[in-house]
Amino acid sequence: MNEIIDIEHAVYIQNDLIKTDSLKVAEYFDKRHTHVLEKIANLDCSLEFTSANFSAHVQPIQAGAVTRESKYYEMTKDGFIFLVMGFTGAKAAQIKEAYIQAFNHMATQLQNQNICGDDLKTGAIVQLVSGGPQLSVSQLLTNAQGIIETAEVLWFHQHKLQKEIVPIACLCPLGASPVLQNIWSLIYDYGIDQLNHSAKPNTIALNISQLLACIPILPPKKQLMQQLKTSTAPFPQCIDHSVAVRSTIDRSLYRCFVFQDSAKPHSALHLSYT
User: Fold this and answer.
1) Which among 176, 190, 150 has a CA at the least distance from the CA of 235?
2) What is the pLDDT of residues 191-238, one digit of tens each?
3) Same-domain check for residues 19 and 109
């Protein structure tokens, strides 16, 4: 029977990236850390792959009265897989499998964080993005891959408790509107024409990474994505959040949030946000 290997703390999320590090690899594979560092230094991969998947750091190590700096590497899942290809044996195979499961589990957690943000959780008071009564989230429901897709919501109607399962994208945590108003105000202050990749009339296509690079005072990525998913009148209405759009700005292909804009001029729309 295969031994159950617990590496729950070997993988972590940092700046929306899922990582492990050379210290943890050495610990779980029972190798000297210097050996792992040598393996990384001698990897036969391109500079592009190395820079994308490995990052060198130092940490202070106390040895008696002396403090010295010790080098270690952080790495992505791809970097980890490339590194441990040469680790052989039945025990190493079990650890690789457990590590990859931990990476996949953490990826699911990260995706669910991006879907729900900080406010959409069990017990939260929400509303349909189209309006209506206040609802209470009784449970969040996942698909076969563990991704949160729907929620069971409760409300009272004519003194009777009602219950229904609705898509997560249809729910908006109460109190989100001021945040959403500030987001759109910042976007229009910056200049919507410099950010909108869509060629279609009354349509706005925005790339999240570009938004954060151009307007760094916007909310963090996962909160920004959650707020924009709930965007509806009087703001531009979100109709999709993962569309490949050929940009009218530079002809490059971007993954975008797409919104249906109102017919009124941008200047008038901007005034309604301020």
Assistant:
1) 176
2) 999 999 999 999 999 999 999 999 999 989 988 998 888 787 678 888
3) yes
Q: Quick count: other Cβ atoms within 10 Å of Cβ 256? A: 22
Q: What pLDDT, on a 0 to 100 scale, did the predictor assign at position 2?
A: 52
Beta strands in 30-115 (DSSP E): 54-63, 66-75
- 191 shares its domain with 141: no
Phi-psi region of 251 (alpha: psi -120 to 50; beta: other; left: phi over 0): left
The answer to which of 96-105, 119-128, 244-253 has the lowest mean pLDDT is 119-128
Q: Domain span at residue 26?
A: 12-116
Residues 156 and 189 in one domain: no
Residues 6+ apart with CB under 8 A from 16: 110, 221, 222
The answer on 157 and 104 residing in a single domain is no
Alpha carbon dihedral 122, 128, 131, 133, in 10-degree steps, equals -40
Q: How confident is the model at residue 262 (pLDDT cuts 50, 70, 90)?
A: low
Cβ count within 10 A of residue 133: 11
Q: Does 62 reside within a domain?
A: yes
Query: For the chain, what is the radius of gyration of the CA atoms?
Result: 24
Residue 81's pLDDT is 96
- 134 and 219 part of one domain: no
Cα distance between residue 28 and residue 244, in whole Å: 40
The kind and range of the H/E element at 83 are helix 77-84
- CA 188 → CA 179, 184, 211, 217, 270, distances in Å? 14, 6, 11, 14, 6
Going by C-alpha positions, the residue among 83, 113, 95, 140 that lies closest to residue 16 is 113
223 in a domain, yes or no? Answer: yes
2 assigned to some structural domain: no
Are 194 and 260 in a shared domain? yes
